[in-house]
Amino acid sequence: MIGKANKLGRHKIGLLILLVCSVFLVLFIWRSNYSQFVDWSSEELEILQSLWLESLPPLSPDQSNAIVDSTAAAKLGQQIFFDSQFSINGEISCATCHQPQLYFSDGLNKAFAIGQTARHTPSIVGVAYSPWFYWDGRKDSQWSQALGPLEDPKEHGGNRMQYARLMGSDESYRIEYEALFGNLPDFSDESIFPVNAGPVQNPEWNAAWQMMTEDNRAQVNRVFSNIGKILAAYETRLMPSETRFDAYVASLLDEDNDLEPSLLTMDEANGLRLFIGEARCIECHNGPLFTNNEFHNTGLLPSPGELPDQGRTRVLQLLLEDPFNCYGGFSDAGIEQCTELTYMRTNRTELLGAMRTPTLRNISATAPYMHKGQIPNLAEVLKHYNQAELALIGHNEAEPLALSRRQLQQIELFLGTLDAPIIDSQVWGQPPL
Ligand code: HEC
Ligand code: HEC
Question: How far does the centroid of ligand 1 lie from the alpha carbon of residue 148, in Å?
Answer without folding.
Answer: 8
